[in-house]
């Protein structure tokens, strides 16, 4: 999705992410070095939703558009509010570093651990970046993503 | 207009489905040649790609009626498009406005 992931256009080496203790330790046993990082939700990342309820039937409808008032027969029960829409199994994760990764090598982080805003969309749509290019430098990855230049769009 | 980022389905503000915006070649807007205001050219498909940021729902419906395979570009930043939030995406039978 724009807003989610872009393809690995430059066909870079893919760095996998493990998000559970079992998967991290399994990768370590296979020879990868798990570069462990905290999974920290960013307050800059959110979606927005409002909930409207039919005053007769009790059924609800959701709204992601605060331009419009509720339809007749509906009342607002949850005003439009930002929320963090992602869930992760553990508060830690690890990039699985192959033992032949070279200093300065450009790679594709398939499942980004850091919370980076992919695009500052309207109406509270600030999704997290799912994948991106990065450079291996001094034992960590330098993320290569500029939200002004690289923000994804929908084409088709 | 509204778009569901999980499947790139584009709708009118009133919820009428318009089309899926999924370029199989993963083209980026910057990779397309500028041919005029709000229009770029895709060399791979030899087609025009239209920026939708100044279009109304009625314009889109008319353009898609004339050419169901028309190529469009929607940016999450444009003020005339709402992104369906995750709580509303891909929930069979769910309602949204």
Summarize the helices and strands and which ones pair or pack.
The complex is a heterodimer of chains A (156) and B (97).
Chain A: E1 13-15, E2 17-18, H1 21-29, E3 33-38, E4 47-54, E5 60-63, E6 74-83, E7 92-97, E8 106-109, E9 132-137, E10 140-144, H2 147-150, E11 154-155
Parallel strand pairs in A: 1-8
Antiparallel strand pairs in A: 2-7, 3-7, 4-5, 4-6, 8-9, 9-10
Chain B: E1 2-4, E2 9-11, E3 17-20, E4 33-36, E5 39-42, E6 47-51, H1 57-66, E7 71-74, E8 82-83
Parallel strand pairs in B: 1-8, 6-7
Antiparallel strand pairs in B: 1-2, 2-3, 4-5, 5-6
Quick structural summary:
The complex is a heterodimer of chains A (156) and B (97). With 156 residues, chain A is mainly beta.
Structural class of chain A: mainly beta
- Tally the helices of chain A: 2
Distance between the termini of chain B: 11 Å
* Helix content bin of chain B: 10-25%
> What is the beta-strand fraction of chain B?
25-35%
Q: How many domains make up the 3D coordinates of chain A?
A: 2
Outline type of chain A? elongated
| Widest β-sheet, arrangement of strands of chain A | 1-8-9-10
Taken as a percent bin, the fraction of beta residues of chain A is: 35-45%
Low-confidence stretches of chain B: 90-94
The span between the termini of chain A is 12 Å
Oligomeric state of the chains present here? heterodimer
Overview of this protein structure:
Chain A has 156 residues and is mainly beta. Chain A folds into two domains: 13-40 and 95-146, no CATH class; 47-82. Helix content of chain A is 8%, strand content 36%. Chain A is built from two helices and eleven strands, in the order ββαββββββββαβ. Chain A has helices at residues 21-29, 147-150; strands spanning 13-15, 17-18, 33-38, 47-54, 60-63, 74-83, 92-97, 106-109, 132-137, 140-144, 154-155. In chain A, the strands form three sheets. In chain A, strands 1-8-9-10 form a four-stranded mixed β-sheet, with no helix packed on it. In chain A, a hairpin with a 5-residue loop joins strand 4 and strand 5. In chain B, the strands form two sheets. Chain B has a four-stranded mixed β-sheet, with helices on one face. The termini of chain B are close together. Chain B has one helix at 57-66; strands spanning 2-4, 9-11, 17-20, 33-36, 39-42, 47-51, 71-74, 82-83. In chain B, 10% of the residues lie in helices and 30% in strands. The model of chain B is unreliable at 90-94 (pLDDT under 50). Chain B has one domain (2-85). With 97 residues, chain B is mainly β. Classes of the chains: A mainly beta (156), B mainly beta (97). Chain A binds chain B through residues 1-4, 6-7, 9, 47-49, 52, 59-65, 67-68, 71, 83, 85, 119-125, 127, 151-156, and chain B through 2-3, 5-6, 8, 10, 13, 19-23, 26-29, 49, 71-79, 81-88, 94-97.
